[in-house]
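Before relying on records like the one below, remember that each one covers exactly one chain. Contacts with other chains, cofactors or solvent are not represented anywhere in the record.
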Amino acid sequence: MTWLVATYEPTALFSLKDSQATSAAGKSLLVPSPYAVKTALIDVAVNWQGVAFAQEVFGWLRGLQMRSSPPQWACVTNSFVKVQRPPKTAEPGNPFKPTVAFREYVQFRGELRLAFEVSGLTAEQRQTLSELLLRLNMLGKRGGFMQWLQQSEMPDLNAHFVAHTGDGRMAGGSAVMHYLDDYGPKMTWEKISTFDKATPDRVVVSALVPYRMTRSSKRSTVYERVG
């Protein structure tokens, strides 16, 4: 196997709801899901060279294995925020109604790594993926900025990376379990559009994030990476 690994420094708060969470209670994942990373790269491709180029990228990107390695430290802050939601019965000229929702925001300290298994890609596709990762600067909720630092290739991933079911590689020591989504085999270009009514084809896998909780209160929880 050959993994293309891109390293980033998070420069803003990160938040990404579990795809199965309700809109009113949005606990955040501690790592970006493969679905979120691939969709962010498709967005980069559209803005870089247009829709036709992004559709070509989607063809080989959707099936790639993707794993992430969280930063050394993560502090999750619990908060209630004001949001606008469409009411059950909308008033004329006022389609939204203010309400509150629970949200979690993650402050990282350390480097975030994203790895793609690229053994099956051509040299040109590897170069394109490398260029896309270089241009990626935001993950999760809008404003979750990341600064690209470097890229390298690895034959195997170590215990710092999230272990998915079936990986044959376990996270070292304790771990936090997440359910992460990815593109399913029936995912199409039309289905990734938020304007399309068709339901996106997602596959959800259980994953072990190599974190252990070191401190917790009603306002925040601190995690340290293990392994």
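The chain has a mean pLDDT of 90.
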